[in-house]
Design a protein that fits this description.
This protein is α/β, with parallel strands linked by helices. It is 36% helix and 16% strand. It contains twelve helices and twelve strands. Helix 1 crosses helix 4 and helix 9 runs antiparallel to helix 12. The protein binds N~2~-sulfamoyl-L-arginine and zinc ion (ZN). Its cofactor is Zn(2+).
Amino acid sequence: MSSWQQYVGVFLLAVVTSVASDNYKELTGNQVWKLNQEDEATVQQLVVDGLVDPLDHSGPSTSLRVTPETAGLVKEVLDQAGITYQVIVQDLARYLRVNDVIQRSQVRKELRAQTCTSSSCTAPLTDNYMTFDQMEYYLAQLNSHPRVSVSSIGKSIEGRDIWIVHINRSGCEGQEPIGMTPRFAYSAMKRRTVWLEGGIHAREWISPAVTLQIIHNITHDCSMGRGLEVYVVPMANPDGYVHTWTNNRLWRKNRRNNPDSSCDGVDLNRNWDFDYGVGASPHPCGETYRGTSAFSEPETQALREAMLQVNSTGTLQMVMAVHSYGQLLLYPYGGPASNPAPYKEKMENLGKLFVNTVNKVHDKTYKIMNANELYPASGTSQDWAKGILKAKYAYTLELRSKKTFVLKPDEILPTGQEVLEGLKMVFLALAREKNTQ
Ligand code: 0X9
Ligand code: ZN
């Protein structure tokens, strides 16, 4: 293909892309600033003040997303603190559009074989991200599986269902994990449960994509998760997710219309009632806006009620909230006050088993660390699960990559594969554990 043909092809794709949906439009004029030196305290204050979106997720952030509305103020704060910076992306909407076109043209070259429609969606897509509708098509069809029940735990603020998938251990009897003595056979054993949460942050598309793969795998493979009742919410923030497909690829929060503010949304991972408020933004424009009070949001209320219900039916052994990005496994607490958490060492050891297994699959490096050491944040589901529900193991898993939320679709399958291998080991260890609390 000659270069002009390539150019026309890319141009046409750009037109098609922008007509189909423009989920970059709300990022027009947003910039990425790269700080020339680390200054954790200043950056943390800018975040809490609702002025920047930090873009490094494996340590102190030196890349910041800055909007046209806040740029002047951010500049003043940085100047005052003596921090110099360069603008490395002039217009994020343009930047992401160009990258999207390149990605789409690459995807077009490979034959896309998978489909997911209302009449046929037998497996979650692994060659592309699924729309919220497609997730619902898949879950509806999954519900006919004998070991699975799919139900709604409540509605989002815009009225979408928040779905939970319960994968029942019955149907996998007779296949107890090796090493499990008859004394611990299922019938005699107290019901052990595991809770997985995906998609609480809208822009972290790899989270629901991987969480759906986990659901599919546990359902169709008795060797995984046997001995455990597994509950999974693959999409905890459906409104936010839809918004990332229509308006703003980098939207994080839910879609609450905040009264007396021009900014929408509450960070659903700062809205839980454990150390509520610490390290979260009180400003509606902040990416980590905590809301007007703990559990002010219908999404967190629905999750809380469902988790309490699951906890009352057995021993909730592990809670894992699946996020991106950073390739980290974080354990509680995220706020400084309550550390160390009970069973800190056990959480560390099980976490090491997880990351060591994950890292062998595709040679990635995931690390385990205390959440507060990454940065302080409270009011998270992980901390609530640990502090209030007393789940022995609670984690936040930050998936691939090490530098962006906008992960190419060809990373869905390998990310799912590595996490599945890690979870297999963890589930086996959990099923064998004698003392669950
Ligand atoms: O900030 C969050 O809610 C999580 N990271 S994300 O990039 N996915 O938004 C991490 C929460 C873990 N807790 C602490 N870092 N304290
Ligand atoms: Zn997140």
